[in-house]
């Protein structure tokens, strides 16, 4: 079973704003990707280290810096210092078990949420924390490892004079958040397929292995749901924010993002209820299977009870010459086949009776 206990004790006793990486080290070395664009062109290039992030802003072009890997604390602090991030924001970025939230810091907007992807081969979810910082003319994203759901955004940036290229950093921030939420729908699709597969397995052969897979999927859905509830609140705060970083023409898209979040929550609740119902289905199937087994055993026992009675009588070995009671079948030439025939007739009559009663 996968280990799910979160180790947070490394921050005990430290002052607020202390830069400590909390979470797994998922990549050997930090990778930084710089993307700058306007309506005419887009430039993409990797940066060697955090020091290269200084002075990269080039207004009126929009700048997007994506960081993969958070274990290099000094590098994250250096990037935060270059873009004027508060120590508490840096602390939240480095804490990969952060609750989804949105914080308006006047000239900066900080958003933390979880990004989910579905592993079809393993039938499980993979998640990591994504931190997004929106500023005047730039967007910073911090991820735990390479690989994300932003390829669609990158493709739209490279496609020419698209809407995202003609808008500013606020629309880029919305597009990145929307890509994360859209990724939830792909996860829900994978969960739905797994639920259908588990249901078929339960109906065909309800084994303990099926229950183990069912509990594992249910645990993942519960954790998924747990991360979505605070996200709904964060997106609602984002929609209500009065920050000047969001232009008026971008705000309708934030409302659409809020609607998508609600749709995901509704679907997750449906899947959770279906998984709970499948536990009842498994118990019912096991109970029915046990009843069928007991019915067959009871039928066999009922058939053999009269046969045992007959065999018991003739197994008493009465000697007809020892007393006045006489068992003529003992000295009869056809006594042995007569007893077998009697047993067969009794068994047949019982079978016909059970069949008429529709007991099998």
Distance between the termini: 42 Å
Instruction: Report the average pLDDT across residues.
Output: 86
Tell me the CATH architecture of the largest domain: 2-Layer Sandwich
Q: State the order of secondary-structure elements, H for helix, E for strand.
A: EEEHHEEEEHHHHHH
Annotate the secondary structure layout:
Layout: E1 31-37, E2 42-47, E3 62-68, H1 73-82, H2 87-94, E4 101-104, E5 109-119, E6 124-135, E7 138-143, H3 151-158, H4 163-166, H5 169-204, H6 208-240, H7 251-314, H8 335-356
What report would you give on this structure?
β1 (31-37) and β2 (42-47) form a beta hairpin. The chain is rod-shaped and about 120 Å long. Helices cover 51% and strands 15% of the residues. The protein has 360 residues and is of the alpha+beta class. It is built from eight helices and seven strands, in the order βββααββββαααααα. The chain has helices spanning 73-82, 87-94, 151-158, 163-166, 169-204, 208-240, 251-314, 335-356; strands spanning 31-37, 42-47, 62-68, 101-104, 109-119, 124-135, 138-143. It has a seven-stranded mixed sheet, sandwiched between helices. 27% of the residues are buried. α5 (169-204) packs antiparallel against α6 (208-240), α6 packs antiparallel against α7 (251-314) and α7 (251-314) packs antiparallel against α8. The model has no long low-confidence stretch (mean pLDDT 86). It folds into two domains: 14-285, 2-Layer Sandwich (Beta Polymerase, domain 2), CATH 3.30.460; 291-356, Methane Monooxygenase Hydroxylase, Chain G, domain 1.
